[in-house]
Amino acid sequence: MNSARDPRIAIVGAGLGGLTCARVLRQHGRSVAVFEREAAADARPQGGSLDLHPDTGQAALRAAGLLDRFQALARPEGEEWRVLDFADAALLAHQGPSAAGGRPEIDRGQLRGLLLDSLAEGTVRWDRAVSGATPLADGTCRLRFGDGSTEDFDLVVGADGAWSRVRPALSPAAPRYTGVTFVEAGFDHCDTRHPDLARLVGNGSMLAKGAGRSLVAQRNSNGHIRVYIAFRAPQDWQVAAGVDLGDQRAVRTHLLGMFEGWDESLRDLLRPSDTGFVNRSLFVLPAPHTWLHVPGVTLLGDAAHLMPPVGLGANLAMLDGADLAHALVTGSGLDEAVRAYESVMLPRSIEAATSSAQGLDRLVPVATTSVG
Fold it and tell me: What is the 3-state secondary structure (H, E, C) of 93-150?
């Protein structure tokens, strides 16, 4: 771009990475538009609890000038981990909260709200679904919207997650199923309504695992416990099992059978779900996932390096956003800044993807036969 005017920057996706990027840009006086397909900030639940690492997620918040506000909301006690024997729920390992500077927990929704509140009204354009992006010969990029309209920008940042509509402008890669499914459940007001489960889980997270299946439970804010029932199976496991995912009783019955022989206190995590069951197949992008630089467009977060949810994804997305924004406000030119960002982000993501794949194998050990 040769003009001296402010570059026109569009971020597609109002997730943690995209919002972090927008916040750092706005801090430095740069204009930016964030396009989000959801109708409003509260259109859907935002998921469970995240532990923010000092050198990634917390570093990004520091760059965004939000670290103090994060620390006021975070739960240091949420770092606690309890590993239980699946057969008798005996405590096998315990890790308490770290000293100052550890990895405190925060609900994803609270963190997203913190970032949204830090942006000027109108920065996020809600209900603006993007259907695709086309790099143009002059180094700009054209966004296509779901309503058929188009708009050109000097830089389009794809921060739109696993099924990114921007990614095809750079890469033909598509997410693939990992062979692992999480079925999510939840329990409200656990300290009063489910005290036995509250004691079982503790102040942070709990893990029990057997061959091909695991139970992970994490305490969120306001006494909520979120449960992830993890198992290795075909993506359409419910078809072979003859289970209608809309029939909560049938799902519960099947899951209880899958965890037959486990301690009853752990099986209780499969029973009185206040939120019902939500099926979540886990997908990843190929690793390594790289692309040849294309002027006018780049990616961050899951759009760039979708990996298993074992504690790195959100942290890396936020660091990506902060790093890209920093490059844009300190670099000598737009294209040079994006090249510098990609030269750091891509190698970092390859290392993290490898680590995350290994983490998933530890979380849900491979069985000799899959379940279904």
Answer: EEECCCCCCCCCEEEHHHHHHHHHHCCCCCCEECCCCEEEEEECCCCCEEEEECCCCE
Q: Residues 354-358: contacts with CB within 8 Å, 24+ apart?
A: 354/287, 355/312, 356/284, 356/307, 356/308, 356/310, 356/312, 356/313, 357/284, 357/287, 357/307, 357/308
Query: Exposure string (b/e) for 48-84, b if CB count within 10 Å is 16 or more?
Result: bbbbbbeebbbbbbebbebbeebeeebbbebbbbbeb
pLDDT at 271 over 80: yes
Position 275 confidence tier, pLDDT thresholds 50, 70, 90 = confident
Q: First-to-last CA distance in the chain?
A: 54
Phi, psi of 275 (to 5 degrees): -110, 0
pLDDT tops 50 at residue 370: no
Gap between the Cα atoms of 135 and 250, Å rounded: 48
Q: Count CB neighbours of 137 within 10 A.
A: 7
Whether residue 101 has pLDDT greater than 70: no
Greatest extent of the chain over all pairs of C-alpha atoms, in Å = 69
Per the annotation, binding residues for FAD are: 51, 108, 302
Helix (H) or strand (E) holding 84: strand 81-84
pLDDT tens digit string along 315-349? Answer: 999 999 999 999 999 988 999 999 999 999 999 99
For 154-186, how does the pLDDT look when each residue is reduced to its tens digit (9 = 90+)?
A: 999 999 999 999 999 999 999 999 999 999 999
- Residues making up the annotated binding site for NADPH are 44
Eight-class DSSP state of 207: E
- 136/260 Cα distance (integer angstroms): 58
The residue-averaged pLDDT of 180-194 equals: 93
Annotated binding site: 44, 51, 108, 302
